[in-house]
Structure formats: C-alpha cells, structure tokens
Design a protein that fits this description.
Elements: H1 2-21, H2 23-54, H3 59-68, H4 72-100, H5 115-124, H6 133-178
Length: 179
C-alpha cells in the first residue's frame, strides 16, 4: 500500500511538473496575442483622438460630450469608447510589465490577464517541449510543489482518517459501557 501511495504521489507531481513547464510557453503565446490586441485597440483609440482633435476637443472633452448627449446611441458609444480606452491602457501596462520581466517571471503577469486575450490564447494554445531554462525551472518548481502538496494532502487525509476512527472507537466504548 505504501508503494502505491508513493507512486501516486510521484505521478501527480510529475503531471504538475509537466503542466507547470508549459507556463512560459503559454505566457509567450499570450504575449503575442496581447501585442495584436494592443495594436488594434491603439488604432481605435488614435482614430477617436484624431476625430476629437479635428473637432477642437481633447479626448476627455469628447468623452464628456458623449456622456452629456441626450441620444441613447451617443451615450452608449461614449461608454463603449471609455471602456475601450481603459482596456487599451491596461493592455499597454501589461505589455510593459512583460517587457520588464525576465522570461522566468513572465508567467506571473498572467495573474492579471485580459479575459478576452487569455481566452483566445488558451483556445489556440499548443504545448511545447520546455527546452528553455525558464521552462525547465517551472517544471522543477511544479514537480517539487506537487510532491510537497501530495505529501501534505496524504498527511491531512491520514489525520482525518485517524481522528474519525478514534471518534468511532470512543463512541463504541461509550455505548458498550452503557449496556
């Protein structure tokens, strides 16, 4: 039984190590999609800014005009443009964060990823063999984290099992004394 437990622990740790090794590759594919999204939204924002400047307005003034409009279409267009500008600025910040981090730490940027970009990257993601140092380090981290997590889970389950058995024995002793 102990050998089965050890094999299960190492199999789960190996699976986690392989999964973790894919983080740098997924971050790279996400970063490529992020670049495309920044470029496309950049065009939309710059066209809006150019239209506003052509009317003698700043971006903020043009957005205010949309918000003050009585026509629902113009109000809705102002809200969607505000959301597009905010998303663009967030994506640009995320792009800068990717550029400033080493390849080993780039997967951490995914912690605050854009949902649409993440979903697209996930849908098209193809695993790759982790031959980079970042991929190998993430694989090792995942493996050792998996070993530790599985040992802790096994210890917790063993503790719960023993506590339950102890409680059962006590209740059996109490009911036996009452007879």
């Amino acid at each position: 039984m102990a050998m089965l437990k050890e094999n299960l622990i190492y199999a789960m740790a190996l699976a986690l190590g392989i999964s973790a090794s894919q983080m740098p590759e997924f971050a790279q594919q996400y970063r490529q999609r992020l670049g495309g999204a920044v470029e496309e939204l950049g065009h939309v924002v710059s066209e809006f800014d150019r239209d506003a400047a052509g009317a003698g307005l700043s971006r903020a003034q043009a957005l205010d005009l949309h918000q003050q409009a009585t026509e629902p279409l113009f109000k809705a267009r102002g809200r969607s443009m505000s959301a597009a500008i905010a998303r663009y600025e967030n994506l640009v910040e995320q792009q800068k964060d990717f550029a400033e981090r080493s390849p080993l730490l780039q997967p951490l940027v995914l912690g605050y990823s854009d949902r649409a970009v993440f979903a697209g990257a996930w849908q098209d993601f193809r695993p790759a063999v982790p031959i980079t140092s970042a991929g190998l380090l993430w694989a090792a981290f995942g493996f050792f984290f998996g070993v530790g997590a599985m040992y802790m889970l096994a210890a917790l389950l063993r503790w719960i099992w023993r506590a339950g058995m102890l409680a059962l024995r006590r209740s059996n002793l109490i009911s036996a004394r009452r007879r």
